[in-house]
Amino acid sequence: MKPFLCKALIISLLVFHITFLHSQTPKIIFAPQWLPQAQFAGYYVAQEKGFYKEAGIAVEIIHPSANTQATELLATGKADIISLFLITGISAKNKGLDLVNIGQISQHSAILFVTKKSRGIDKLAKLNGKKIGIWKSGFDEVPKALMQEKNYNVEWVPILSTVNLFMMDGIDALTVMSYNEYDYIINCGVNEDELNVFPVSDYGYDVPEDGLYCLKSTYEKRKSDFDKFLQATFKGWDYAAANKEFAMDIVLKRMKEAHVPANRVHQGWMLDKVLEIVLTPNKGVKRGELLESDFLKAAGILDNSTKSEIKFTFNEFYKPLGK
């Protein structure tokens, strides 16, 4: 065989081998429940640092739009794993989407009601009869359930992610995430000592938020792949905690690519606050574990607020990986 033919054959075989190995790498499409931001830094870092690749999986991260929920991406097969608040996951399953929780990333609630002290609302009870801004795009189950349980007659005013109506006194209170809209308010020129804050966790509504979900039909088939994803994700969160500036660079890069307005100071605040609920659960729970007591709490809140009986058990809802 002529030398150049031999070389060409070797190159062809190498290309074929590499292509074959690549085609054998399991691919996972992951969709967080919202637009790119530091709330999802651990996933971005895990991808950027090659932690998913090291685990033997190829991960693509996609995001829903402001008008498309992650549950739609899961239901239509456009995503293999999504993140959702626990109560949103329970609600989705109760409405017929046969999903399961495969890992609880955060263990606490970051939802707050915030008011200006100048409006005289210094107790939760004084929200009765008031106008409260609430997210138009979802994540509203817990605040509404708390108001309903207290039998407060409030007017819910739909908002997207802006705090403008609150700043202009168009509403009396605003539901915010401690890691997101609360900091926006402060950045708009209102000092923290000018605000009253009512964490829902102080009123028995400390419901865990971000968890990972897949369809029940793919759980058993891809259990090993999904476990690799979970472990590599936590590795990404650990790296983000130890290398915050690097994590921020990646977050801002993803936001820019998605044409989402980005502010490094605000995203830094978000990263710090999210790390608190991801890495320091303070409740004796194993990493990634969903407690049955938290499931029952969330299910009870949903049951009471919607008057629709939960149709499944904890063991039908939570399918831990690595077992």
Distance between the termini: 54 Å
Strand content: 15-25%
How would you state the average pLDDT, rounded? 90
| Strands ordered across the widest β-sheet | 2-1-3-10-4
Largest sheet: 5 strands, mixed
Order of helices and strands: HEHHEHEHEEEHEHEHEEHHHHH
Shape: globular
CATH architecture of the largest domain: 3-Layer(aba) Sandwich
> Percent of residues in helical segments?
40-55%
Q: Number of helical segments?
A: 13
Question: What is the assigned CATH homologous superfamily of the largest domain?
Answer: Periplasmic binding protein-like II
Structural class: alpha/beta
**CATH domain class of the largest domain:** Alpha Beta
Q: Count the strands?
A: 10
User: What is the total domain count?
Assistant: 2
Task: Tell me what you see in this structure.
By secondary structure, this protein is α/β, with parallel strands linked by helices. The protein has 2 domains: 19-108 and 208-317, 3-Layer(aba) Sandwich (D-Maltodextrin-Binding Protein, domain 2); 111-203, D-Maltodextrin-Binding Protein, domain 2, CATH 3.40.190. The chain is built from 13 helices and 10 strands. It has a 5-stranded mixed β-sheet with strand order 2-1-3-10-4. Strands 7-6-8-5-9 form a 5-stranded mixed β-sheet, with no helix packed on it. Helix 5 packs across helix 12 (292-306) and helix 9 (216-242) packs across helix 10. The radius of gyration is 22 Å and the shape is globular. Residues 17-22 have low confidence and may be disordered.
Summarize the structure.
45% of the residues lie in helices and 16% in strands.
